[in-house]
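Because discrete structure vocabularies remain unfamiliar, it helps to consider an illustrative case, giving the amino acid sequence and backbone structure tokens:
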Amino acid sequence: MSVAEAPAGTGRRGRPPGTSRRELEVIALRLFTANGFEETTVDQIAAEAGVSRRAFFRYFDSKPGVLWGAFDTEVATIRALLDEVPAGLPVLAAVRQAVLAANHYRAADVPELRARMSLIGYVPALMASAAVHYDAWERAISDFVARRTGQPADSLYPLAVGRATLAACRAGYDRWVVHADADLTVYLDAALRALAAGFADPVLSGEPRGPAGPGGRGLPAPPPLRQES
């Protein structure tokens, strides 16, 4: 029963109704899209969710954080997964495995993600913050490569792998958003396999496309990677 439906005399005492991080994200995105990012306040988001301003900041440290929260969670997940990969797994195979495991988006998620991309691409405050979040994603990879190679994280090869991986994944993400015909992992898998193969001509013969089969993996499997000794 909502507060508006409560019998007279019951008042509004007690803790405010609960919500979740995900509910706040959905509400905020809807308000940003309808009213504009700058025009929407934290108080409005909290009020729409039926929680206090303080409750909002228990989930997010800022208004832009609402749009970057899932991305930052992905970075943390990739880091954790890379910490656990077996020592014998080749570097790029380990990276691909972690990236695919950290991404669970489906074709049905595309409308929401398109709205996020539109905001991030056109709102100055969000555009300015993008570099920080992409850098964190990239460093999750370069730190792993540095541990594997015994080199500093800011040396050539860790940096090269981190930046190349981020570029490949962003390309996969962009094409997936356009087509919306399979799980995101289909496109990420193809992009990262091509990267690991050095973008050799046979690998570049055709862009992966759906429709997806069970679990979003209905596309033909790419040729296996050759592991160098």
Summary: The longest helix spans residues 124-149.
